[in-house]
Structure formats: C-alpha cells, structure tokens
Amino acid sequence: MDSVKIKTELALRGFDFSMLAKALGKSPSLISKVAARKARSRAVAEAIAKALGRSVTEVFPDVEQYQTPLRTQGDRKQKERELVALLNK
After folding, report:
1. What is the b/e burial string over 53-64, where b = at least 16 CB atoms within 10 angstroms of the residue's CB?
2. How far from 59 is each of 5, 23, 27, 79, CA to CA, in Å?
3. Disulfide-capable partner of 28 in 16, 21, 72, 78 (CB 3.0 to 4.6 Å)?
4. Could you tell me which residues come within 8 angstroms of residue 3 by beta carbon, excluding any fewer than 6 positions away?
5. Which long-range contacts (CB under 8 A, 24 or more apart) does 38-45 make?
6. CB neighbours of 16 closer than 8 A, spacing ≥ 6?
7. Nearest to 42 by CA among 70, 9, 2
8. What does the mean pLDDT of the chain come to?
9. Which UniProt keywords apply (predicted)?
10. d(CA 14, CA 66)
11. Dist CA 9 CA 5 (whole Å)
12. With respect to CATH, is domain 3-87 assigned 1.10.1660?
C-alpha cells in the first residue's frame, strides 16, 4: 500500500497523519516519511496499520523489517535461559 493509498484510507476513517502523530507523540513528518518508506519505525508502521484495521504486513508488504514478529520481553527471557543452558552443557 503506497503513501497516497494510506492517506486516503485514513481519511475515509476520519483520521490523518497529524492526528496519528499527536496520538503517538511523534511528528507528522515522521508519520508521512514512514508511510512513504523514507523512514523506518516499527511503532509508527504498526499504528498506521491499526488505524487502517489491517496488519502491518498487509500495509507494508515491501518493508522486510516489518515482516517478522517482535519478541516480547518474556520471549527474550526464555531465549536467554535457553542460551545459558546451552552454554553450560
């Protein structure tokens, strides 16, 4: 989905980049740049996708960085334990 389509779909839902920026505590410029693929921000990309009622992979299929799920803090702790156990064998 390109930035024009993102902007259009947001407008159909009554939103715009400025509103999204304010809700996230970010600049409208950053929102615009992420939508246009001129900047990367997973948090902004996910917010755009949520506002559109879509997944981040659906809105940004061309951005490899957004295609893998983020690990939670619990996932990280589990992986740390696995690594410690592996290294202590």
Report:
1. eeebeebbeeee
2. 10, 19, 20, 30
3. 21
4. 32, 35, 36, 37
5. 40/65, 42/66, 42/70, 44/20
6. 7, 10
7. 70
8. 93
9. DNA-binding, Transcription, Transcription regulation
10. 25
11. 6
12. no
| pLDDT for the residue numbered 9 | 97
C-beta of residue 20 within 8 angstroms of C-beta of residue 31: yes
Domain extent listing, the chain: 3-87
Q: 52-67 pLDDT, tens per residue?
A: 999 999 999 999 999 8
The whole model's pTM is what?
0.78
